[in-house]
Amino acid sequence: MLNGSCHCGTLRWYYAAAPEAATACNCTICRRYGALWIYGFDGKEVTTEGDSAAYIRGNHIAFHFCPNCGCACFMQGLRKEPDGSRRMAVNLRMAGDPDAVQSIPLRGFDGLNRFEPLPDEGRCVADIWA
User: Model's pTM, two decimal places?
Assistant: First the structure.
């Protein structure tokens, strides 16, 4: 299990699976947050603790951050899946143990122009944690 928190520890996330990859998106908000996302579903792979504030983008996604220290910790889809679950992603940059996530493959996503995956460059999280 992976876990992470905001800087002050008020907001926490837990990821109960082995992530296939971390996503580095270049859209306007992910670029500003500097986030690396790993995806799952609320209550399945992803659970959270603590009070958060949220920035709702459009009518489909909420970015949750700590109201105390401001760290962007996770995002949650606003639309429910057919089984009632919600798609979520946690920000891997908030990981409690950076060593535990260094070998996770890194995948680029063009969320700015084409909204599609970028070619695989064979990098992992450690390659950008200089």
Answer: 0.92
